[in-house]
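Collaborator request, handled under Task 6.
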Amino acid sequence: MAINWSNNLEPVQLNDLLERLEGAFGEEEPFAGRDLSVDEVEALQKVFADSGHQRYLQDQVNRQIIRDYLINAVMLGYVSAQDLVNLAPQMATREGRAALSLQMLMLGVDQAAEIVAGTPLAHLKPLKPEGERPSYIKLIEK
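Structure tokens returned to the collaborator:
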């Protein structure tokens, strides 16, 4: 699947898009405020390579998306703080948080009332791949 990235609408493969996005971020912030010892680095590599840590990180990202979205929605008056009680059951599980954060990424904060009310989001539908070749992403291991 090709994606248009530039103004001249040239097709770009997903792995090329990923590389461009990563390059646009600039340098990563240092992990620690000091130099780490070899033993510390080895211990961290063991922890960070664990699949449980990856699930933990994704869940933390989902929680942050939900927090930011809902704070914005309340502060801008799209929903009241009392309305958020409707989301408590979904926010209580990892799967619920993943689905909720995805909805929030796909909708503007002005549509927060739809999410809070539990309204089925008819305007969001799964995409079906088009074309002859499937999407391709090259995973980059650091």
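The cover message to the collaborator said: "The beta strands are 2-4, 11-13. The longest helix spans residues 51-75. Please let us know whether this matches your experimental observations."
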